Amino acid sequence: MGKTKIFIRHPQTLFQTEDAFQLKKHDIAAIIQASWKAIMQRRKYLKMKEAAIVLQKNIRRFLAIRLAKRRRRAANTIRK
């Protein structure tokens, strides 16, 4: 048994191996599908997280500018 090839001395071994593979084929496919779906969901989540961070950054910037204007107006009112 190597990494890419397998030596089979008796044909019964081949048939048993093929039968075992046929029984597990659906489980293997389900594992691959679950892994792929997890990867895609992770990518979607990271995009949404990045978009939320950009939105939060812009909102904080807007609020900071508005607060600075209010303080500037208040300081000007006091000076008058």
Automatic annotation (TrEMBL):
Gene3D superfamilies: 1.20.5.190. PROSITE patterns: IQ. It holds the Pfam family IQ. This is Uncharacterized protein. It comes from Rhamnusium bicolor.
